[in-house]
Amino acid sequence: MKVIITGSTGMVGKGALLECLDNNIIEEVLVINRHSIGIKHPKLNEIIHRDLKDLSSIKHQLAGYDACFHCMGISALGLCEAAYTEITYTMSHELANTLFDLNPQMVFIYISGAGTDSSEKGRLMWARIKGKTENMILNKGFKDAYAFRPGAILPEKGIRSRTGWYNTFYAIARPFFPLLRKMKSVTTTTKLGRAMIHIINHPTDQKVLENTDINRLISNV
User: Fold this and answer.
1) What ranges in the chain are assigned the alpha helix state H?
2) Model confidence at 173: pLDDT above 80
3) Which of 46, 77, 131, 160 is deepest in the core (most CB within 10 A)?
4) Taking the complete model, does pTM exceed 0.70, yes or no?
5) Which superfamily is assigned to 2-217 in CATH?
6) Where is pLDDT greater, at 173 or 102?
């Protein structure tokens, strides 16, 4: 299996990357980032591309992949609707269009978020835009597509969030991690990565998955 990962400099994307590098099912990983991930591995290739609204110059490097783990995202805090839409929807739309043209038989997994609004009509700006992004991806026509909506996520394997206050919270909460890991409503970067890999070869009729669903996917793996 050959996998493309976006957002691998972030917490969820890096978790997915580490699991892919450790899993024998995954033969090759291509990460697309604006800045280098700083990891060297025989299975890993990296494309540094600044303008994620236009992938035409790297399109020739994106053919022949079996799955995409689209983990790129940003907090809506402090962003206007136009700026958040550009990062969340516009860039995702360009990626989905490009990959569908090249690899219509791939499995596309979008990392969304708990509370996303599939109706696209709610009062929360970020939830509407994430819902619009989910709907676009799920209806694109890929062989299979999923929206993962993680809520509480615990970082593992030395992973840190790019959001400073998250790291402060994790530092305070770390003594409680063993207890939190036992909660069905809490997942981890490791479980998220493993669930994404698992679902490539073990499809499910449920296309929108929250933490309890993600944890259940790999409970017997």
Assistant:
1) 11-22, 81-85, 91-102, 125-138, 164-173, 177-181, 189-201, 211-217
2) no
3) 131
4) yes
5) NAD(P)-binding Rossmann-like Domain (3.40.50.720)
6) 102
